[in-house]
């Protein structure tokens, strides 16, 4: 259990947050490339990351040595407006970052479990741990696809778990999901939580103070290198 309080950085604008976070992630990737010869990055989906992804896409690092993976994905094809892979391809994998490799979680198979198993095999070939992870959060305290009502939640949040990616079934999630597991996320060398707006700030503060451990708090409390919270109104 990590014993450090999360570090909050409050920004006066979402633009300044995006640029600062992009700089921090680029630095973490450059450290990985300098020290290990490659950089491994995991990005979330949803609506918050687009501006940050666009800022990161223009950072002048050796993107040919970077592999981008997804923190989580909806079980939909890339052509769906719900696709996180579509979001990353449109906003991150352009400009300088177009040279990066991209490993997606969705596979065009009938069952989400088969998609998870196929992605697991591909992720097994990557040079873990992650150099940088950017998480988002929902007002219900979910992060990645660790939804509080997920059938698989105990396995998803197990710090001793051995899977890299799992299928998720949760009423509150809408469609079935695919998500990296807690151990893969919390072992990152740079772990950031990117949230915006008063509702999410309140939800996070409440989650940190509550008796019940919501998924976001489980991640924060298991973050080996701590977690940095990037917040703008
Ligand atoms: O697939 C997803 O939706 C995300 O990865 C998820 O964990 C996201 O970070 C939160 O739901 C916040 O989403 P918003 O940025 O849209 O509020």
TrEMBL record:
Pfam families: Glucosamine_iso. This is 6-phosphogluconolactonase. GO terms for molecular function: 6-phosphogluconolactonase activity. InterPro entries: 6-phosphogluconolactonase_DevB (IPR005900), 6PGL (IPR039104), Glc/Gal-6P_isomerase (IPR006148), NagB/RpiA_transferase-like (IPR037171). GO terms for biological process: carbohydrate metabolic process; pentose-phosphate shunt. Its EC number is 3.1.1.31. It catalyses: 6-phospho-D-glucono-1,5-lactone + H2O = 6-phospho-D-gluconate + H(+). Belongs to the glucosamine/galactosamine-6-phosphate isomerase family. 6-phosphogluconolactonase subfamily. Keywords: Hydrolase. Residues 13-221 form the Glucosamine/galactosamine-6-phosphate isomerase domain. It comes from Oryzicola mucosus. Pathway: Carbohydrate degradation; pentose phosphate pathway; D-ribulose 5-phosphate from D-glucose 6-phosphate (oxidative stage): step 2/3. Hydrolysis of 6-phosphogluconolactone to 6-phosphogluconate.
